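During the second half of the funding period, the structural biology subgroup turned its attention to how the target accommodates small molecules. The most pressing case was zinc ion, which had performed well in the primary screen but for which no bound structure existed. We therefore specified the complex as follows and requested a full 3D prediction, including the ligand pose.
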Amino acid sequence: MRAILTWHSVDDSNSLISVTASQLERQLDWLASGKVLVLPVSALVTSTDDVDAIALTFDDGFTNFSSIAAPLLQERNLPATVFIVPSKVGGTNSWDVSSGRPEIPPLRLMTWDEIRRVEQQGIEIGGHGLTHASLAGRDATFLAAEIEECTSIIEASLGKRPSCFAYPYGKYDRATLSAVSKTHAAACTTRFDFVTALDAPHELPRLDNYYFRDNRMLESWGTRRFAAFVKFRKAGRTVRKAVGQATERRR
Ligand SMILES: [Zn+2]
């Protein structure tokens, strides 16, 4: 069984994108216990379905990654990938605040110095779009700016070309896929599921830790209970998406 986990922010706000430091620490303790292999995304993608492994990803590049998550990862020798938004480096998650999701607080994003420091600790840095704009339904010029410029700024700042990308809001279409495939070896979505050999490397599903933060579900990895939970959540999200699309069509 293979999966990629998603975190965003480590803070006490209890928002949709937040886990507390103690919740993260509990999860990382279990991940470091040896009960499952923890691999970088690139190694997880090229492994096979008989490998029992998890990859750890953090979206957006919040300052609390460098101050809280990175030291916890380093203490436990766990690899992870952080997806950053180059035009917002050193700023805040203004896209969350302007998207009408008031439950998500404004949070500081890492500076380039902080990003370089975690990168030197062994954290992989990936792209998450130049401005965190949705990349579905966009023309080639917009996609080139958001994807290629994101890549070249990261390369110029870190001296290393990012190989992995995460679609902002999990949104993409064929044009996005084509543009991301030209520039990256792999890309992560927000589709809630395990990774299997059937998944294309640029449409990798992930399991959002929002669903694991208050329970001990992650610790039941590998059991029927865990598989049933993923199946249940996946079905719930599919139904909500279909209902949303039906509502959209009626407008
Ligand atoms: Zn994001």
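Two results from this model are relevant to the next phase. The beta strands are 2-7, 9-10, 18-19, 37-38, 53-60, 81-84, 124-127, 164-166, 186-192, 204-208. The domain at 2-220 is CATH 3.20.20.370 (TIM Barrel).
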